[in-house]
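Human:
Class, as today's exercise, you are to examine the entry below, and be ready to discuss the fold:
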Amino acid sequence: MFRDGSIMASQVGQSVEFPFTGSMVGLYYEIRQNAGIVSCEIDGKVVSEVDTSWGPTYKFNRQNCTMIATGLAPGDHVLRITVTDKRHELSAGSEFHLGYLMAAG
């Protein structure tokens, strides 16, 4: 668990933006029963949707790391993460718990 260091959103449409410098970016987040799917945009273009729910595989909360974009032009970018109305059929909600943002390159 991230305890005091995570960012949580649960309402559809809620979003957060992070400026970063690099050519790749990823998320370190928590997989939860009541989590949903978030949309990830870089510089205004959707590059990925990430399902942060248990799905059929896991039956406990755990942390996960997902690279959402590689091969970006080196330099400054803006990542926007938005809670969507999509979720796995086994999910009980739309929460998203972000622990860390990883940027490199």
